[in-house]
Amino acid sequence: MSFFARHQRLLLLLGTAYVLGLVIIHARLPPAHVWWIAAAFSILMNIPYVIESRAVGAHAKLEVGITSTLIALSLAGPLIAPPFVIIAIFAHGLWDISKHHGVGVPFASWYTLGCAVIDILYGTALLIYWLTI
Predict the structure, then answer these.
(1) Is it the case that residue 1 has pLDDT exceeding 70?
(2) Angle of CA points 118, 124, 129, to nearest 5°
(3) Percent of the chain with pLDDT over 70
(4) Which of 35, 46, 49, 97 gives 20 to 30 Å between its CA and that of 111?
């Protein structure tokens, strides 16, 4: 049985902590840290799917491949140019939508749709911020 299917409350708790942490950390730290914060949160949002693929023993190559690509883009944001992390966050939202439609390791639909909404909103906020600085 899948790890997160057995631990729905943990998944909800971690997802809630992620969103609250995102807001609190961005509100508390100076703008100089925006792209590192975005990269860190972008990296964190990829971990549940790899954990789940390992727990169920399926789709590990696909999940690790997508995760590795998105993590590399996330790190390129603060190191090379902010659009890379913005792209990684939007791409993760698209991956969530794909997962909702059955691609990759099965995951709770409330989580994938909620995560997609957060990714799109966060990516949009970062894009607007980048365009206005």
Answers:
(1) no
(2) 125
(3) 99
(4) 35
Instruction: Tell me the pLDDT tens digit for each residue of 92-114.
Output: 999 999 999 999 999 889 889 98
Sequence-separated (6 or more) residues with CB below 8 Å from residue 98:
104
pLDDT at residue 93 in the model: 96
Q: Return the residue matching tokens 């789709």.
A: 59
Structure-block tokens of residue 64:
């690790």
Residue 41: CB atoms within 10 Å: 20
State the Cα–Cα distance between residues 63 and 98, nearest whole angstrom: 12
Euclidean distance between CA atoms 97 and 115, whole angstroms: 9
Instruction: Render 31-71 in DSSP notation, one character per residue.
Output: GGGHHHHHHHHHHHTTHHHHHHHHHHTSSHHHHHHHHHHHH
Tokens of 118: 């957060």
Contact status, residue 18 vs residue 40, Cβ threshold 8 Å: no
pTM of structure? 0.86
